[in-house]
């Protein structure tokens, strides 16, 4: 508290410092709302947190299933990471990254090339966010092809700025009133639980991919790239079938476009492989990386065909993995590998999904459970037979889990709750979370 006071935060008292209602009121006045729901989530305590346990300033402890939307690969205040970070604290970090090269950045660029699929000649560009990683891929694809048309999906989320926002289509709130920055031909994301083409898994002839061929033929075959989330995250946690991803990749190639995999949320080992796209046996031309790669710092990266750009100054960011961030990111990549976190994610993720499927069998209102590794979605319906989307219940379950059962959950799409925990979660904690989730659903469906 003394520190906050000394930094000029006014009217902070021993009483209000642990009162979320008070600070949410101040937030409403002074801090523009982003995606937080101030009706549901209290003010988080920035001084505390351990693994998947986080706290609000009122003193409640939560089991965190959101991991800061896939930012916290190793949870909160992970001791080996804190030790490493402390050891590099006096790195000169006021070095902006775009005028000079530094060895940590070069090393990180090289490492990312190594761990992304494909044996072709690749190059990395370091950015400051996921949206900028996506935009960087798009600019590179335009630069290399001389084309400006992109294939995007409905739903999809690629960020909230410029070209990335032009691709995004997961909620009208994100887009309404903002101009479309680039041409996008949009088709439905492969979504087997509610196939937009009325097919069943058994009868599927990859109609979604054929729809893409038709869209390209009708709307313009001058495509620079197809941009696809390897798992559709924000839009509702759809896991596409491998045959659809392969067909979409092939059609893209047929028309001379690049294939960009957006792995901002699904990458960094979360699904048990470095990149979710590897689960579908497709080698993308570009991978857009973000969130966890920064080990808690704002960072993103692109790996794509060498050279990414036709010359200098085609893309540049003042802070793109400045040296300290590049070092912590390198440490994270090494630690995930050395400590077997990818294997753990595959195994514990399968366990988490099995436990969620048990809940699906138990509750009439869970229509679908889908996911890979530490990335799963639970879709709420009015009943299993009619599959009518149940947004009202989903919202109620989020509120109940957070406020009553102290389980930090996050919505996705219209009627889905995401399970996106940090990789350090234990099986006991998964069981505990399942138990709380089960109770919250039971409370809301009484
Ligand atoms: C798949 C995907 N792409 C891009 C982004 C944008 O990342 P950022 O918020 O770091 O710009 C996100 C963020 O949630 C995302 O989930």
What can you tell me about this protein's structure?
This protein is an alpha/beta fold. The protein folds into 2 domains: 2-78 and 341-445, Aspartate Aminotransferase, domain 1, CATH 3.90.1150; 103-338, 3-Layer(aba) Sandwich (Aspartate Aminotransferase, domain 2), CATH 3.40.640.10. It is built from 14 helices and 14 strands. The strands form 3 sheets. A 7-stranded mixed β-sheet has the order 3-9-8-7-6-4-5, with helices on both faces. Strands 10-11-14-13 form a 4-stranded antiparallel β-sheet. A hairpin with a 3-residue loop joins strand 13 (410-412) and strand 14 (416-419). The mean pLDDT is 96. The protein binds pyridoxal-5'-phosphate. Residues 69, 129-131, 134, 157-159, 229, 233-234, 262, 264-265, 290 line the site of pyridoxal-5'-phosphate.
Summarize the structure.
The protein is α/β, with parallel strands linked by helices and 446 residues long. 37% of the residues lie in helices and 15% in strands. The two termini are 43 Å apart.
